[in-house]
Amino acid sequence: MRLFKSRQGLSTVIGGIFVVLITVSSLNAIFWMLVQQETLREVTEQMNRLDTERFSENLEFGNPALVNFTSSEAGYEFDVVVSNVGGVGVKVARIYIYSNSSDLLTVLDEQESPTVPGITNNFLDSGELEKRIHVKTDRNLNDGALYTVKLVTERGRIFTAEYQRSTSAVWASQVNLGPIRLDLTYTSVNYTSPSQTTPAPGWVVPGATPLVWYVKLTNIGPYELKLLKQSVFYAMEFKESGNPVPEAFFIVSPLTDYPGGTPGVVSYDEDNDPYILLPNAQGDYQAGGPPLIVKFSATEMGGDTPRDLSSSTRYIVFIGLYYEVNGEQMGVTIPFVAIRTT
C-alpha cells in the first residue's frame, strides 16, 4: 500500500513537469510568433518607406543635358546638368551612355580615383537645381552624334535624356532650286571611309581614301521625285594656277554603308531600288516632305567602285541631280559647299 502511494506521488510530479514544459513551449512559440510579426511589420514599413522615397525621386535634365566638354591625353570630361525637383535627396549611383549610331554602351560608376573613368559630385539634395555631376570617360560625346544618357539612382530609379551637340549656333540655311531643297548645316554633308564607319561631318576629310558622301534632300514640290543614275556629287579642285581636276562621285544604292564594309558600296538601281523624294502629305510645300539621305561614291555612273580625293587639296562642290517627275526627266545643279582634304 505504501509503494502504491509512492508511485502515485511520483506520477503527479512527472505530470506537473510535463505541464510546465508544455506551458514554456507554448510561451516560446507565442513569443517567436510575436517576434516574427514585429520583424515582418518592420520590414514591410521599411519597404513601404523605400518605395515612397523611390517614387518621390524626380530628376530633371538641363538643356543641354551635357556641358563643359574638355579633352586631354587622359580622356574626356564633361558635366551632366540635373535638377532635383523631388521630395528626397538623390544619389546617382551609375550612368549609362548609349551611342544611337554605333550601339556602343559605356557604364560609369562612382570614380575610385581621379585617374580612372567614373562620376563624382553625384548627390543632389531635395530642391537642388542645376547640379553638375562630373563625368570622366574615355569616349568623346561631343562629336555631333546622338547619345542616350541614363542616370540610375541608389534607390533604383532611372532617368533618361538624349544629347546631341547643337549645330544651330554655328549656322543654318537652305538652298531651294526647283522642287528640291538642300539644308546647309554643320551636318548637312557627311562622309564615311574604311576607317570612319559611321557618318561624320565632311568639311575636312582624309585624302587618298575611298569615300561615301551623305547628303540630305527634301522635296518641296507637289509631286514625288525619283532620282536617276546620272545624279552626281561633283568636287572641283580649287587651284591658284593651272587646270583644276574634277572628281565625280556618282549616286549609289541606299544599301551602301561605307567603303570596305558589308555590303560596302552598292551600285544604284534606279528601276528596282531608287531614291524617292516624297512631297508633303498635307500639301505644305514650304515645309517640304520627309527628308531623305542620298549617298554618292561611285567612280562611274551605275558603278560600285568608291572614289577618293587628292591629299591636301581644296574643293568646291556642286550637286547635279537628275530626276523623274510625272514621267518627265529633268535636272538641276546646286552649288553646295567648299571642303578640303588632309
What does this entry look like structurally?
The chain is of the alpha+beta class. The protein folds into 2 domains: 59-163, Sandwich (Immunoglobulin-like); 173-341, Distorted Sandwich (Coagulation Factor XIII, Chain A, domain 1), CATH 2.70.50. Helix content is 16%, strand content 41%. The protein has one helix at 2-56; strands at 59-72, 75-84, 90-99, 105-109, 118-120, 123-124, 131-137, 147-153, 158-163, 173-177, 180-184, 189-192, 200-201, 204-205, 212-219, 225-227, 232-237, 246-251, 276-277, 292-298, 314-325, 328-341. Strands 10, 11, 12, 13, 14, 15, 16, 17, 18, 19, 20, 21 and 22 form a 13-stranded mixed beta sheet that branches. 24% of the residues are buried. The mean pLDDT is 85.
- Stretches with pLDDT under 50, minimum 5 residues: none
Count the E strands: 22
Reading the helices and strands in chain order gives HEEEEEEEEEEEEEEEEEEEEEE
Which outline best applies? elongated
Rg, Å, rounded: 35 Å
Category from helices, strands and their pairing: alpha+beta
CATH topology name of the largest domain: Coagulation Factor XIII, Chain A, domain 1
Q: Report strand %.
A: 35-45%
CATH arch. level architecture of the largest domain = Distorted Sandwich
Mean pLDDT: 85
